[in-house]
Amino acid sequence: MEEGTSSSKKKKKRRIKWKDSRIILISLGNTIILLLLSYILNNLSFFTGENLNQYAWMEWIKGKVGLEENIDYKDALFINVAYDKQLVDKCDEFGMPVGKTDITDRTKLLEFLELLTETNNYKYVILDVRFEKGLESEADSSLFDKITHMDKVVCANHKDIELADSALYGKAAVNDYTSTIVDTNFKRYKFIRDGQISLPLHVYDELTGKTIKKHGIFSTCNGKLCYNSIFLRFLSDGFSEYDDNGDKVYYNLGSDILTNYSKSELAALTKDKLVLVGNLVEDVHDTYAGMKPGTVITYHAIRAILNNEHMVSFSLMFFIGALFFLISLSLFSNESIIKKIPFIKHAKSRVLRFMLSFIGYAFVLTATTTVLYMFFDQSISILIPSFFFSIQKSIINHKRAKS
After folding, report:
1. Cα(79)–Cα(270) distance, rounded to whole angstroms?
2. Please, what sign has the CA dihedral across residues 274, 378, 381, 37?
3. Does 179 score more than 60 pLDDT?
4. What is the CA radius of gyration of the chain?
5. Which residues of 321-342 are buried (b: 16+ CB within 10 A; e: fewer)?
6. Region at 209 (left for phi over 0; alpha for psi -120 to 50; beta for the rest)
7. Where are the beta strands (DSSP E) in 274-314?
8. What is the pTM of this model?
9. Mind listing the pLDDT tens digit for each residue in 246-260?
10. How far is CA 166 from CA 125, 162, 200, in A?
């Protein structure tokens, strides 16, 4: 009898040990799957699940307590062309004249580019201006020739237009973002879209000699794992012509640059800077930090990729993976993940343990994204992990109810 009882206990111990090992292996498998799915999700440009109100509040708080990143735009010169327009003939899709429409004054733009060529001390020129086929001006031939023979310059192309001159395609790159009927806010910038290199990636390639390469669901840059899409961070403040000190944030092409600045002054103004030309008043888009000019969004995308924010941080991946693993284990043990933390696990306060018992994986994931964004300027999507753990919890609860 004693030997039988002893044997039974050993079997029981072995069974419990095997069962615990299985849970660990399942949780480890869940972690690997979630890291892969999260990587794929973070490469999308929409439907990634960010709570824009949460990010708006976080950015506002960061600005109030001094945690907001200091972006002073000192590496950029913004040129506004909203007030520099000319009327040109407009035809319908069948080539029939329908009247007049306005475009950026291409004569003034040509004059500005000629001045830049003479000073030739800028870092790069980004023309966020439409050169659409069918909208022609007398300056087109000279302007397009200047662009095609100019160093370190790119003009914006868009999926819904054809460029006015085929020669421009060698100096153009797509500069679009995706929105849907239910997801209209700008959130993430995609660097390779439908096989086409975006404008920020084009600038990055020419300035660093590096680029992003697609390998199925994975993307690499300089041989290292990276993201093809990143969540852009914006300042909580608006983007106006003057800052709080009365200094210029952007300059108007005609009334400022071409009227009041000499060649030497322009040389000093553009020295080693990204020169971004665009409509900073009317071409605006809705973001979690309010309305932002498209040209400013483009700047943030260029700045982000130049700062290597598209590269995968393996230390962050390890931290997130450990979090996924602990959440999975806690669901199997039917115990809050908070109780897995050593100093809480051994806490004697019943009140503290009772309060923490209500904290689940959804709160932990949200709190983690908040801390990462507030203190480390890191943004990750938790849409798939939240959905995954919700399904896992339902399955476990269903099995417990049946047993």
Report:
1. 11
2. positive
3. no
4. 28
5. bebbbbbbbbbbeeebbbeeee
6. left
7. 274-278, 284-287, 290-293
8. 0.83
9. 889 999 999 999 999
10. 20, 9, 21
